[in-house]
Amino acid sequence: MEIAALVIILALALWVVFKPVRRDARLRERDELRVDQHRRHHTEVVRRESSAANVNLTHLPVQFVVFDLETTGLDPLRDEIIEIGAIRVNRDSVNHDTFEIIVRPVKKVPAKITQLTGITQAMVDGGDDLDYSLRAFCKFVGDLPLVAFNADFDMAFLRSASNKCGVTIPQRASCALKMARRAWPERASYKLKDLARDGNLGLEDEHRSLGDCKRALIVYTAAASRLGTTN
């Protein structure tokens, strides 16, 4: 099956309702999370197509978390996390929780990073410190399996941050990028935006953590379906 068709089928099978899990400092203490309901309305045509596709997702974990980081650079020892986004996926449900937090770095956000991500210095100045952000993320994840598009990159930053904050993240992360390379070895490009474009996925919120999570989720499930494995 071509990547575009497989991605669309999996998107229909998985992606119906998201519940954003966000902080609300005005209403709760800083260590609490507020769950708001947000529904994406799909047409009857989409529901029929999803049902007709009859996609088998049993090879996926019952629950897992797809996450993405935005950072000030490429070096996990010198650069810093400025945004964490995640989707807690429920394989057997159409309800998936999302997490998104802006992290306040010690250093200024480089202009090239603002140009790439749209994350400004003013945004991070109003964000949360690394310790709070990382612990909130770990609370959201629990002991569930992790997935990232470029897992080596994201996990290196998570490990560096966890060492600074004294937080333990025992999970390894499945890498959607490596799986895509095995699933479609003939491709010329494995950039997330190219995989998304070829799968007819939108590029809204590109280089923002939650937007890239959504694309990584579908690429991961499409590659896993093709390969018959989640690693």
From TrEMBL:
<dbReference type="Pfam" id="PF00929">
    <property type="entry name" value="RNase_T"/>
</dbReference>
<keyword id="KW-0540">Nuclease</keyword>
<feature type="domain" description="Exonuclease">
    <location>
        <begin position="63"/>
        <end position="229"/>
    </location>
</feature>
<dbReference type="GO" id="GO:0003676">
    <property type="term" value="F:nucleic acid binding"/>
</dbReference>
<protein>
    <submittedName>
        <fullName>3'-5' exonuclease</fullName>
    </submittedName>
</protein>
<dbReference type="InterPro" id="IPR036397">
    <property type="entry name" value="RNaseH_sf"/>
</dbReference>
<dbReference type="InterPro" id="IPR013520">
    <property type="entry name" value="Ribonucl_H"/>
</dbReference>
<dbReference type="GO" id="GO:0006259">
    <property type="term" value="P:DNA metabolic process"/>
</dbReference>
<keyword id="KW-0269">Exonuclease</keyword>
<keyword id="KW-0378">Hydrolase</keyword>
<dbReference type="GO" id="GO:0008408">
    <property type="term" value="F:3'-5' exonuclease activity"/>
</dbReference>
<comment type="function">
    <text>DNA polymerase III is a complex, multichain enzyme responsible for most of the replicative synthesis in bacteria. The epsilon subunit contain the editing function and is a proofreading 3'-5' exonuclease.</text>
</comment>
<dbReference type="InterPro" id="IPR012337">
    <property type="entry name" value="RNaseH-like_sf"/>
</dbReference>
<comment type="subunit">
    <text>DNA polymerase III contains a core (composed of alpha, epsilon and theta chains) that associates with a tau subunit. This core dimerizes to form the POLIII' complex. PolIII' associates with the gamma complex (composed of gamma, delta, delta', psi and chi chains) and with the beta chain to form the complete DNA polymerase III complex.</text>
</comment>
